[in-house]
Amino acid sequence: MFQFISVPELTKTLIASFVGLLTLIGIMARPFRWNEAAIAMAGAGLLLLLGLISPLDAFSTLCRDWNTFLFFLGMMGLSALAEAAGLFDWLAVQAARFARNSARLLFFNVFLLGSLISMILSNDATALILTPVVYVLVTKLRLPVLPFLFACTFIADTASFLLPVSNPINIIMLSHFPMDLFTFLRLLLLPSLVVIGINIGIFFLLYRRELRGQFKLERLPPADETIKHRAYFRYTCLVLIGVAAAYVLASAARFPLSLIAVGGAGLLLIGALGWKQSTLRETGKRISWSIFGFIAGMSIVVRSIEDTGLTARFGDWLLRLSGGNSFGSVMIGTAGAALGTNLINNIPMAVVMTSALGSMQHAPPAVQHGFLAATMFGCDLGPNLTTVGSLATVLWLLILRRQGIDVSGLDYFKVGVIVTPIMLLAGALTIWLLL
Amino acid sequence: MRVLCCLDGTNVEPISRATALFSPAELTVGLIHVIDKGPHHDIEHTRERFFRSPVPPASREHQMLEVEQASAKEIIAEGLRYLSGAETLQREGRPEREIVNAAAEWEADLVIICPRAEYRDEHKIGPKSVGHVARFVLDHAPCPVFLVRPINRDQFPIKR
To answer: How far is A43 from chain B (nearest CA, A)?
Structure first.
């Protein structure tokens, strides 16, 4: 619209900022439980309609993010097809077998399994697939359910920066600021291990009473019964081992990780179709298509705000706040990302931070690396504070409770408030020491 | 006398011993086990955070429901082995609320409950020895509540 009418630049800036802000508030508050993707796409659509971003710019923004889109597709495909093979159920039964009838040891094994799955298949797979699998397992074993569910949900995020592929947020950030595997591991591997250790330690302390018992392994079916088709299961294991190795090699060679994920998912799909273990329709139903609309909408909205120079100012402000030193960059980066991720969810926060960090190219390398590592760390781990989604969801749950409706999401929040600040502080300090 | 016994999968023995304190001629026993739906809601919240529909895929949802039902049936069957002839009540929802509502509906004269699910024969006395379900039932039951605590003489004397 503004392409046909002459409007001062300041007015355009104000309107673009207003639409961007409205979109972020919409995502944060989710009025009438609207879908976030619809809100993000409505914001992007309005900006396009008003001519505050040209269709060409919007298209080039989406093309620039091809690696992110493809990675999400490959990651969700890999998890869905591995689930179809019965891999997660089989791994859970193995975790119980190795626990030698001890609830404590099983709890520990669930943490290890969650870490392994997050590391290779991303936090998404641990939170969405492993959690119900573990629920079924502990219900059969007549063990207390809640500690095990919390373990799965928390470790999904806590172990999500062991590798670049462990969380799609890392891919969003690294697509804009490439970092070689050695630097990634140098900055984030040790902090990962530190926070995983803290998570396990605090959970053992919190649930020591519930975990004192023994269980009877006979309550579980033999591990082989969880395998739906032996040949497809073996094939899935082989493909996933290959994908894990390829991820490491591709990260080291800076080859796009999305191509590995999509390639691996393609191989699994061929196997699943060949052995009739899944169909295209079934696999498609397990993929969250709305996430693509959400990322596309958010990218366009943030791009138009970027054009107004607001995100660059936000980046400058963060830099000033950090004092321009490595300690400040890690602390401000972590706190800002963790807070933002709880306000507006971690994907939009990562997109906003990516744009803001773009203005820090004149800062010393240690400060740049500090901000980048801290942002990934904060956006990955931050959601553990309000595991139910965001602060808005927590407020909504609190309102429900006041109205006398009992809600379980608050139990997560209580645990998150205890564990997450400690993990954020310890992890941030470790990153700073490694800079 | 109508006595409602709350089974959690770990307490059938102490509950059955407690019922033996009453004269069998006057006793009508009810066994209740509640499938806790809290974890389902937790899983739904997590799915929403990851931009998925709240309900897990049909096959997984079916598996979860099947296991819950099987486990509940097993717990009730175990109760019937100790207290044969008892009436059975199976509920779903928040255990504490379902128990007090069932006690009212079933017109229980007494509710028998253990302080909390115990997964090991090691009972500690102290401020947290009564779990949130038993505490809620004590606070909200429509009839007297018999709280079956384990014997703990070895932890005495406590500090005066």
So the answer is: 18
Token pair 């505490």 is at which residue? B135
Instruction: State whether residue A292 sits within 8 Å of chain B by CB.
Output: no
Indicate yes or no: CB of B36 within 8 angstroms of CB of A142: no
What interface predicted TM-score (ipTM) does this complex get? 0.89
- β-bridge pairing B110-113 and B87-93: unpaired
pTM: 0.91
**Host H or E run for residue B6:** strand B2-6
Q: How does pLDDT run across A313-340, given as a tens digit for each residue?
A: 999 999 999 998 999 999 999 999 999 8
The per-residue pLDDT for range B92-125, each reduced to its tens digit, is 999 999 999 999 999 999 999 999 888 766 677 8
Q: Which of A83, A210, A288, A408 to mutate to test the interface with B (most CBs of B within 10 A)?
A: A408
**Spatial distance between the Cα atoms of A160 and A295, rounded to a whole number of angstroms:** 19
Nearest CA-CA distance, residue A406 and chain B, Å: 8
Residue B92: strand pairing partners: B35
Pick from B52, B97, B128, B133 the residue to mutate for testing the A interface (most A CBs within 10 Å): B52
Do the Cβ atoms of A407 and B36 come within 8 Å? Answer: no
